[in-house]
Amino acid sequence: RIKAGDRSALWHQDGGSVEKYKEMVEDLDRSIGQVLKALKRSGQEQDTLVFFASDNGGERFSYNWPLAGNKGSLQEGGIRVPSILRWPARIDGGQVSDLPVFSPDWTATLLDLAGARPHSAYPLDGTSLAGHLLRGTEVPERDLFWRVRGERALRRGDWKYYRGKSGRDQLFDLSEDSREQADRAPFEAARLAELRSAWERIDAGLLRY
Q1: What one-character DSSP code corresponds to residue 7?
Q2: CB neighbours (10 Å) of residue 69?
Q3: What pLDDT, on a 0 to 100 scale, did the predictor assign at position 117?
Q4: Number of structural domains, the chain?
Q5: Who's near 131: CB < 8 A, 6+ residues apart?
Q6: Contact (CB, 8 A) for 153 and 146
Q7: Which one, 17, 48, 129, 169, has the greatest CB density within 10 A?
């Protein structure tokens, strides 16, 4: 029974079944297929960019191994997800990239490709990847920032600063430890402080969460 005012009731990590999960995946696959078929029938298949991604890692019946964490967490299992792009007229198929990006980058990218520009008073949080996708140019180095439900994370290159619900600051070298098991904070105090300060500077410029 749900009690009035219980906001946790909106959280849906529990319940369901493997069979229902299977049906949802199949339904999603059919729906995407319908979109692609419609583009082909209308003659727009070659010059239409199709972008597909998840906004978070798997939950319940998903399999996130070898990453730790899942949906709702800022560990890699909660935020490292695949993205798929298809644009036959402009991007060669069959390419694979391990470039770290985050969701606001796709907003900036799609606007850039459409020829739209954000108002100067309202700059975007993300970086356009259009040049990288179309011409192979390097993406400028920048910090990737996350915050959700009492957790915080910032990635700079291969280094990731993470504070979970325990409140303990941790530091991981993702090039060597994608599962986030070897906390480098005790050995990299200066780097930890630098990334923590970077996170706090970005957070200070955002709306309260």
Answers
A1: G
A2: 21
A3: 92
A4: 1
A5: 137, 139
A6: yes
A7: 129
What is the spatial distance between Cα 74 and Cα 68, in angstroms, rounded to a whole number? 10
The verdict on residue 125 lying in a domain is yes
The answer to whether residue 20 sits within a structural domain is no
Question: Is residue 121 in a domain?
Answer: yes
Q: What is the DSSP letter of 30?
A: H
CB 87 within 8 A of CB 166: no
Tokens of 106: 């796709």
User: Is this structure's pTM higher than 0.90?
Assistant: no
What's the rounded Cα separation, in Å, for the pair 106 and 152? Answer: 21
- CATH label of the domain that carries residue 77: 3.30.1120.10
- Work out the widest C-alpha separation in the chain, in whole angstroms: 59
Give the distance from CA 159 to its chain's centroid: 16
| Per-residue pLDDT tens digits for 120-152 | 999 999 999 999 999 999 999 999 999 998 999
Range of the domain at 135: 49-204
Distances (CA, A) of 43 to 38, 92, 180: 9, 19, 46
Residue 60 lies in a domain: yes
Q: Residue 111: its pLDDT value, please?
A: 96
CA–CA dist 61, 136 (Å, integer): 37
